[in-house]
Amino acid sequence: MKMVVAWHDAAFTLPDAILTPEVMRQVLDKFHLQHKLKETWSRDEAMVLGKLTSLDETSTGSMSMKDRNQNMIDSQETILESIR
Fold first, then answer.
1. Is the whole model's pTM more than 0.90, yes or no?
2. I want to staple 67 with a disulfide (CB 3.0 to 4.6 A). Which of 19, 22, 42, 63 is the partner?
């Protein structure tokens, strides 16, 4: 359902408001990047950010906060830049 809403919204940002395969691919690529970003979240980040994205408290990131390293932080920054 989220994908359909995202496609709808993306189409309506265009001057002719037509959903094309290219627009659909761009939205799908953005969803993939967001998923990659979520995989870099620590457990604490997942708890906080999960509340912003309607996840429950049992949702966790891929590592604990103490296991985070500079590579994961750099990865987050790279993914965020791709999403923007």
1. no
2. 63
